[in-house]
Amino acid sequence: MTGAGGAPPGLVLAAPSSGGGKTTLTLALLRLLRNAGRAVAPVKVGPDYIDPAFHAAASGRSCHNLDVWAMRPETVAELAWRAGARAELVLAEGVMGLFDGGAGRCGATAGLALVTGWPVVLIVDVRGQAGSAAAVIHGFHSFLPELPLAGVIFNQVGGDKHEALLREASAPLGVPVLGAVRRHADLALPDRHLGLVQAAEHPDLEAFLDGAAAVIGREVDVPALTALAQPLRLPRPATAPAIHLPPPGQRLAIARDPAFAFAYDWLLESWRIAGAELLPFSPLSDQGPAADADAVYLPGGYPELHAGRLAGNRRFLDGLRAAAGAGKAVYGECGGYMVLGQGLIDADGERHAMAGLLALESSFARRRLHLGYRQVRLAEDTPLGPAGTSFRGHEFHFATVCNGPASRPLFLCHDAGGAACPPAGERCGAVFGSFIHLIDRTPDPP
Predict the structure, then answer these.
(1) Cross-strand bridge partners of residue 155
(2) pLDDT for res 191
(3) Which of 4, 62, 149, 173 has the highest CB neighbour number within 10 Å of its CB?
């Protein structure tokens, strides 16, 4: 089934706060519908590299990110249509709480629901409450009346009596209760400091997904839930796909393994559409970038968990140095940026020598959270654009910088609210990087 103009109907799965069970329930629904032969497309709201890999595993389709703050409106429209191509239903998992994450009252998830027209299903963790859950639902239903709150799923329900109390208390609200998911210890996913343990590292992900789907099939009225979906409100883009970010090179060697997994599939695909050839290599397997590449890209990930191994992988590190020595662009984001530096100190306080191409010395021995959206401008000309070119992105890491600020910063920065932040990143010759994950160019001025 598709909506007007061929747009598939969609739903947004949201929650009052982080930790309410959005990811697990989204994965269970994706796998349940896939097992039933439905073509269901996953979407993740906001900046996230980990959840989309789980979505892809559950649904069998690549997951697209949609972000109404960090992306231009035309980017949101293009990616929403691309996500729903050849699908009969789109399920979008929210980020944090329904009204959290973006600048302004709507927040990232609520804003995305308003823009797309996809109704919201609120997942409410009801541990320690019964009638109070109705007050939570009422508050979220009335806070932004134009937001389409179509239904609610109770999560972490204690038993039949608990469910009866919840349903009785919420009945006057007129918001359909679509399910009451019991407390299941085996539905928990392992996590670490940046979120869930990556999908590729899960010991038996397929069994977990099928088990979660079976639970949701019993405890959620899935036909009633999917019947609430509405077509995408955004018009189909009339032009060719946009270039969200320019590729650093046309023959681009890109690190791809569990240490460098934080690269958006939709962004890499846009680079392919723009004519770039992507040449993946695995630093953990001691592979260096292709000798005939004209640029190297090290995405973020978890190099701190593999620092000793990376420090001993000479073909990898020498390959980076050779590329830099030949004047090729070498670009690192977050984890990739740390590997381009002098050294990385792990959580146990042990220092591991890195590529030595930038002055950065980073440490996890004294962790400090750096989190938030960023508006940035290039301080100098780079392969990403001339000085002054502006982007929007996101910063999320626990590393601390042991040395002083870079003498040649890469970006001049502001936060989502427009407040100035210290300059970010570093540039040395053709080597450059920062802790900021770039998402899109900023909107063109009117």
Answers:
(1) 125, 181
(2) 67
(3) 149
**Which CATH number is 251-441 given?**
3.40.50.880
Residues forming CATH 3.40.50.300 domain(s) in the chain: 4-231
**Dihedral sign, Cα of residue 26, residue 235, residue 266, residue 322:** negative
**Rounded to whole angstroms, how far apart are CA atoms 425 and 405?**
9
Q: 132: Cβ–Cβ under 8 A, 6 or more apart, which residues?
A: none
Does residue 446 have a pLDDT over 50?
A: no
When the candidates are 3.40.630.30, 3.40.50.300, 3.30.460.80, 3.40.50.2300, the CATH number that belongs to 4-231 is: 3.40.50.300
Nearest to 154 by CA among 141, 144, 142, 165: 165
Helix axes 51-59, 205-219, angle to 10 degrees: 80
Mean pLDDT of 136-155: 95
pLDDT value at residue 56: 95
CA distances from 296 to 262, 270, 291, 358, 395 (A): 15, 17, 10, 15, 21
Active site residues: 334
Is the model's pLDDT at 160 over the cut of 60? yes
Span 287-346, pLDDT tens digits: 999 999 999 999 999 999 999 999 999 999 999 999 999 999 999 999 999 999 999 999
Q: Tokens standing for 439?
A: 């998402």
Name the token pair of 22: 């959005």
Neighbouring C-beta atoms of residue 122, cutoff 10 Å: 25
Dihedral pair phi/psi, residue 279, rounded to 5°: -120, 90
Of the CA atoms within 13 Å of residue 264, those in its CB half-sphere come to 25
pLDDT-wise least confident of 194-198, 267-271, 292-296:
194-198
Name the strand (E) or helix (H) holding 212: helix 205-219
d(CA 259, CA 282): 9
- What is the H or E stretch that residue 308 is in? helix 307-311
Cα 13 from Cα 97, distance rounded (Å): 11
pLDDT, the chain, mean: 92
Q: Which residues of the chain form CATH 3.40.50.880?
A: 251-441
User: What's the pLDDT tens digit per position in 212-247?
Assistant: 999 999 999 999 999 999 999 999 887 766 667 889
